[in-house]
Specification:
Elements lengths: L1 H8 L7 H11 L4 E8 L5 E5 L4 E2 L7 H10 L7 E10 L4 E9 L17 H14 L4 E2 L3 E5 L33 E7 L9 E6 L6 E9 L6 E5 L6 E9 L5 E6 L3 H15 L7 E5 L7 E8 L3 H11 L2 H15 L4 H11 L23 E2 H14 L30 E9 L2 E9 L5 E9 L5 H18 L1
Parallel strand pairs: 5-6, 5-7, 7-14, 10-12
Antiparallel strand pairs: 1-2, 1-19, 3-16, 4-5, 4-15, 8-9, 8-13, 11-12, 17-18, 18-19
Helix pairs in contact: 1-2, 3-6, 3-7
Amino acid sequence: MRGFIVLLLWLSVFEIHGQVNNDLTEICNQGILSISVREVSTGEEIYSHQSSKLITPASILKIIPTFESVDILGKEFRFKSELFYEGELSTDGTLAGNLVFQSDGDPTLASKRIDTSDSIQTFFEKFTRLIKNKGIHCIDGNVIISVNPQKIYPQAPGWPANDLGNYYAAGSWSLNVNENEFEIHFDTRKAIGEKPEINSILPNIHGLEIINQLAIDKADTGDQAYIFNGAYSFTKVINGTLPQGHEDFIIRGAIPDPPLFFKQELEKYLNNVNIAFNKIEIVENYIPQSTTEKIKTYESPSLIDIIKLTNTESINLYADAIFNKLAEKLELYNPDKIYQNIFNRHDLLPSHEKYHLEDGSGLSPLNKISTSLLSEYLVDWSKRHPDIGLKSLLPIAGKEGTVTKVFRNLKNPPTVFLKSGSMNMVQSYAGYIVSKKGTIFSIAFCANYCEQARVDILHILEIITNDIYLSK
């Protein structure tokens, strides 16, 4: 702790470089504290501490696929899903042909985050109303849900078992809906140690079985529940504790099979409005057999807006959906190969040969990369895109999203655009610092298995970034 206090009180990163490194090593002597800072205009690494060591980056990894998608997909790219029919529609409302919904893997489809007025129920009510309003009352054919092949498994092999059933590990599928999540509502007003009762599950998922192994704990303990069993498993085991005293305490789980869920919901709502059809099926890359008539195009927000939202709120689904779209565009379906392609685009290999990356969201603790490579990637990307403002890609530290609490004790905080990352024994930050003189620096900062409290590690980041802001 002595090293941290010295650093906090008076050490300057640039004036006493060697002493800072000694103190940082003392602070994190059981783990790795890795830091790399570069001046964007020159690419020079002006400060480093264990920057070549491989670390688990957590969610700061999201920066790479989200930023790179601007080059590969284009900043105006939008996910687009189409509702159309093929065949002849008679005056009596009979469609001699198929009704088709063609999915583009849009992660924002039926998301309350995007359209706060729409519940999943409202989405399907509007969906079937569109069909009715087109004059279709009977389908003498099939309802087809067309999806791209699922060439990357929705959940990376290294994702922890106690994450897989939770909303943040829902994964990106060939068809995403309602952010691939459902809610479980609990009554926790019983005595401590007793099992909380399940009030409801929304939306209802056909065939879902919940094994409730939860217990009620003290009122101030928060949500300590974990949902086990991941993709395609309709039996979910919930373990851990929930806080006492709530009539309606909500936890969120991952829908086991979102394309199947979409199919079952659509079938239900078509039946509710008495639209008859032969059968409903999910088909990969369906090719229409006759002329088509568009009913509606569902468009996501622009890619730039999705990137800002992804990095501000650290949305795993959105990052992995973008990553999957990059895979499709590059025709590469091994995550390491995708990252190799990205780094080669920026001439960052073979100088940085060592890394292992499994996903686009950073959820896997098996992801390994150096802060030196991350900071160098940020330098090169910024040089290539001087026209794109940093605030359109990353949250402003101290003001937005997951970095709102950074610099909260400073009256005049530095200008820093920052992505944060966090998982068990991992705390990380990456982005850009704009100094008082207007010089831009990239920074990648990551603590793995450090024994210090998270607030202390955050203070180290704050000192380094504030020093750069004031002195450079």
